Amino acid sequence: MDKVTRCASEQGVVIFSKSSCCLCYTVTILFRDLGVQPRVYDIDHDPDCREIEKALVRLGCSAPVPAVFIGGKLVGSTNEVMSLHLSGSLIPLIRPYQAQPSAI
What we know:
Strand content: 15-25%
Largest sheet: 4 strands, mixed
Low-confidence stretches: none
Number of helices: 5
Strand order of the largest sheet: 2-1-3-4
Helix content: 40-55%
């Protein structure tokens, strides 16, 4: 659990993922398209993968991956992220983490 909370607070937007998960890929691309470079933590490359999955479920994720954290707080999995996006509530959450356009 400590590993999850530590990793979740390393960057503004953190996605716990598995390299073979198409929903994880989709959520990552969504954030990139919205101007955010999330920290993607592929748990399948971690020896503590099973413990991380259990910790994510205990924290309230409906599925272990993708698990999205914004500002160190759990947002949820694909359904929660897409619901926020469709309702217009995701952009205000990620605005502090969006890339700023460079001045010319």
